[in-house]
Write a structure and sequence with these properties.
about 350 residues, alpha/beta, Rossmann fold, seven-stranded parallel sheet, 12 helices, about 30% helix, elongated
Length: about 350
Amino acid sequence: MDLLNPITRSPDNPVRKLLIVVHHRFALWNAPAWVPEQLQKEFPEFRVVHLSDYKSLSEHIPDTEVLITWSVRPEQIKSAHKLRWIHSPAAAVHQLMYPELIESDVVLTNARDVHGPVVAEHVIAQILALAKKIPQAVRFQGKHLWAQEALWNELPRIREIAGATLGLIGVGSIGREVAKRAAALGMHVIAVREHPEKGTPEGVEAVFGPDQLDRLLAQADYVILAAPVTPNTTSLMNAERLRKMKTDACLINVGRGPLIDDAALADALREHRIGGAALDVFPKEPLASDSPLWDLDNLLITPHTAALTEKLWSRHYELIRENLRRYLAGEPLLAAVDKRTGY
């Protein structure tokens, strides 16, 4: 299918259908009612349908032209004869990378540029929290203990981040925003990207290819995972790679849970082979209450809150609106996913 020749409708034919189905137990991830209402006002070419759950998706998808969702099954793609474009309100789209969609002509876009700036802020907060031992201080506060000496004596010591080296794995929308903020704080930023020939983003001092990942791990004081999940990045940080890190270095994951071998990380933290870690994402969420990760004093856990902001759906809407305008005009869409690579 060619977006430059979108489906046209005559007065005698049905109105084009835009379907929104974004359902999650966490309220913020769900599209608020004003989103479909506003889209209907601004784009009368479409009949905007908003489903509160996935139960009737199979019924609605055959005549849908534009689909806003982060989950659709392969058999539903097969029945979506009029589908031309899927937009995911998430940055990660690995759950959609199955043959039925990859081999189709359906264009896929994601929300990577919506989440980049706010997730980058979270990364900086995690770096500072680990450097200044904020989690440990909070635990001492709960015990009413003045722990100045204890916090200083525990290794790695409280430290400055200016002059420290940040190793960035992935320089997409999140990674680029992290690099700019870290450089502004005086950190030296080095990065691994799949295609180093694409250049050096703002704030990054040196870019390595994937085959030089161990070189980055050996230099970095803070290793930031901001890569997509692909066959090459699943369990990227395994036991062998964790051993390549400096003994006082910290690992931060705001990408996706499968990037890390959790069992290997737990061992490395328990044995103090690395300085600490901060995780916002996990292979299975919510993290099970009996997970050994909860009890590690040198691990900071945030419950997938890096992308949370009251501005979330306003930013989603701006991207969707601009891409709908482009779609109707036959122009290239923003944040298009290369289905061959998965990002």
